[in-house]
Amino acid sequence: MKAARLFGPKDLRIVDLPIPQLGAGDVLCKVRRACICGTDLAIFSGNCSFVRSGEVDFPMTQGHEWSGVVAATGSGVTRFHPGDHVVSTNGISCGKCPECLVGNLARCKNSRSLGTVHAWDGAFAEYVRIPERNLFLLPDKLSFEEGALLEPATVAYSGILAANVHAGDTVLIHGSGPIGIITAKLAKTVGASKIFLTGRKAYKLNKGKEFGADITINTTAESVSDVLARETIDGKVDRIIETSGAIELLQDSFLRISGGGTIAVLAFYEHPLPELAIDQIVFRNISLKGVADASRTHIPILRLMETGNLCLSPLISGRYGFENILDAYRDMADGGETRIKMILDFE
Ligand SMILES: [Zn+2]
Ligand SMILES: [Zn+2]
Questions:
Q1: Ligand 2 center to residue 74 CA distance, Å?
Q2: 206-253 pLDDT, tens per residue?
Q3: Which domains are delineated in the chain?
Q4: Cα of 245 to ligand 1 centre, how many Å?
Q5: How many contiguous H segments (helices) and E segments (strands) does the chain have?
Q6: Residue scoring higher pLDDT (294 or 266)
Q7: Is the pLDDT of residue 130 over 90?
Q8: Residue 10 and residue 203: Cα distance in Å, rounded?
Q9: What is the 116 CA–ligand 2 centroid distance (Å)?
């Protein structure tokens, strides 16, 4: 099979590899669509703390946002059959440890990430092998393109759950990438009263507005504190969801969060926080939650997509044949602010 193998930063080559061998419980999937994530671009370029720390094992195959068709099943697989349309989690759990056996896949000590850190070979290839426990049926109503957009939505919804967004809450979302934009939509879905979205690119902020943000803040032109002072009672919000990876926005979040509020952090940072206002966190009963596991949110997100309550296709800003993956990376890196999601077509 053809696979896009990353041999090191910026050294991506399409090579021939054997089709993966199936063990018990494995499913072989023929990839139909795969999206390129900001994390993929960071690993590809080498501009990423996980590459510098040696946690990315080269050579590797990227691709954790994908959809496909079941081609074959290993022994013991009962839920899937050849021809089924499928999507997966991006953590591949071991299925054998005590946490896996009680359904806590997120706490699996042997978990591997699909196509990123200490990678399980990902979906930038004609075929990908996924254990049955990490696979979901893609509903008939949804296209492969929509299926490949599932993963960022599961991350966004994990942020909504971690931040405990309830009806009537005011919510500040930092970052107008795909996850920030989808978070705005989901905050609206759960009934937030006023949703602020920050970013640096007008095009993406407008997309965020289309997806449900009430007020967008272009941080190159205005300050978050000025806008919140104008638009809220006390300049603070009930929930903050940080998707930007900008350390100064995380630092600022401790000043913008209401007493009893929650800050959920979905991004990665190159540096530790210079100051952690621990006394403020304690005195004002603030919760700070890191969010890396999205394994609980695939089923509700698929239902929202299937019922037409979450339409993600407008996020696609470039379509490329799989063989042109390098052009897709180039376009994503250099194409400017209109580039939100690049999708690869394997058909
Ligand atoms: Zn991703
Ligand atoms: Zn496990």
A1: 19
A2: 999 999 999 999 999 999 999 999 999 999 999 999 999 999 999 999
A3: 2-149+312-345 (3.90.180.10), 155-290 (3.40.50.720)
A4: 14
A5: 12, 18
A6: 266
A7: yes
A8: 28
A9: 18
